[in-house]
């Protein structure tokens, strides 16, 4: 720009105390409001969970005890594990329906192959997790290489995995080593192994979300093109994302067998949509990039407590999906309103 | 002197379209090298090749004497080439600092990001290059376009590049940040880096570039030392013909009729007490530093966000609470928005659909569209605005930037509104199209249209507008006309407390 020299000392002063900042300095109240709105998608499910727990406690004694925590965590854990994988995929802006097939396949493999030898069981447990990772990686490769919708690719692999599970074990059954099914019963310091597993999962997440991969997954979900231009490999990120989802589905299957003591070729489908629901109630955006595992875990507990409530109220169990659906709608609506007003207060 | 970067006979085709043919480019360390050309000349494709985002079909590039063939952006970055794309490479849901260090974050022993080290590195980077103050912990989507542009530059610099590519980096910046960036580019070159500088603003190029390479139709047409060439020659090279003049003749066409009258107009704390009359046949410029209320003014007039005060349109009070209430045919207002890629155009839709989207009722009878009437309107607009499109069915996203902007103009003109709100309509557009748009604005004014025109390029306001209203801190600082309407006076009013306008 051809501005005359006498202007330049002026520019220096302007640059140090920018007038635009002075004009835009928000009030303390406004800062609080925007901080609250920013976290609305996590605050809302927290409030919902507390509300549900209070209702639950008013109907039954002993809700706020370690026993209840142990029980509810055990009830929620399979869903939490499945939803952890789903959370990672949703953060990347995708969706994974194949976890249904993987969970079914995992349970039937465990119920038919573990036998009674602990070493053999352990080897197969690792094998199942590896299969989960491989199937997930294959999802990632298909989605990237064929440029197909994640919804369609994982719908197809779900079907293939379910069929495979049916061939291995056509009806519910099989058996697991007795030590294996004791997993959920054992406790340490008053906390069941399920609660400890939840703690391990949280530690994993605190670590994972701060790794380069964790950031890259969120970034890709937020803006795929920008992530690519910044050096993220499109196929690498999809292999990692769907691979992790497959691994968590396999872990969910293994956990499930410790609870049921049997394999089931159809049980996986019960976790597909709830895993998405738990994540969305917990504030994960279906458009990718926003949310975290803490929200998903809260979402999974909300869904579990709704089941408890229906049981305590002694109403038909068909009320459970109805109430879950309403909670899902309220959660999505509330966070979308918060999101919009956050935008409005800014632009 | 040895060349740091040497590209010979680069070619690139997209389907049947040749983006680059025989493009040559050579530049040395320690210089600012400007790359000029109209939109569609192949500059963007060329730098995408350098950045590893696109692979060339033919030709060779050498970097510091050895062959350079990056397979992906990461490899380009490792070789020391850092691009600042016009299409920003930032991620909205990451924070400012996460964006800057994305893919090369400082890691701890357990491979997690060291937050404190990242913050320190960010502040150090900001201090070293005298960045405008931006909080590093904000999410990027909270930032304005100008701030994002600044962060994109920080991201490129965080890799200490040997070659920094700035593609239209100043087009989103206000005068203050522009000055800063020019100083930064010059400083980097003086410190031994190569800065490849792409801009449509010749003034900037003159100020900092040592050498200039000109592209036209995908090929290199000329390369000069900046000192040894005049603007006229450069423009002729870019256009392939002599351009008579960039700015059209300005005849006074305004009448006494007030088209748009504002009294006590304001938007929360960001815009206050605006009294302004836009007359029939007038081009009224709006100037101001980035973030002093221009955007709020344009958005509020178009019904985006709330406002207070009174608005008279063609002599009658009008309430505008949504774009729908602004777009009311002949007595309405139409807007050319700031971010044409995201707000103005549906890139995946055809030129025809984009043009007629807001005016479907103009060719609809009893709820059924009449394709013949639609076709006639579309053909007329394409002809009037000289939109370079294969057919009306070509996707808007495949047009050059200048032609995309023409489509938005067409869309706006089809609404028949005679009050036009133009927010930086020439941003990132080539010289040839700029000239056409200025001519169009003056022609429309002569036909009785009233035009409110914001530009981040002060020269445009000085040469195209009849009067210029200058905003400072959300208030009207001055209205300049005649002799007073100069870049110097605008800057004074925008930056200084003035006693009188």
TrEMBL record, chain B:
Keyword terms: ATP-binding, Nucleotide-binding, Repeat, Sugar transport, Transport
Pfam families: ABC_tran (PF00005)
Gene3D superfamilies tied to this protein: P-loop containing nucleotide triphosphate hydrolases (3.40.50.300)
Entry GO MF terms: ATP binding
InterPro entries reported in the protein's UniProt record: AAA+_ATPase, ABC_carbohydrate_import_ATPase, ABC_transporter-like_ATP-bd, ABC_transporter-like_CS, P-loop_NTPase
PROSITE patterns reported for this sequence: ABC_TRANSPORTER_1, ABC_TRANSPORTER_2
SMART domains: AAA (SM00382)
Domain annotation ABC transporter: ranges: 5-242, 253-498
Homology family: Belongs to the ABC transporter superfamily.
Name the record gives this protein: Sugar ABC transporter ATP-binding protein
Signal sequence bounds: none
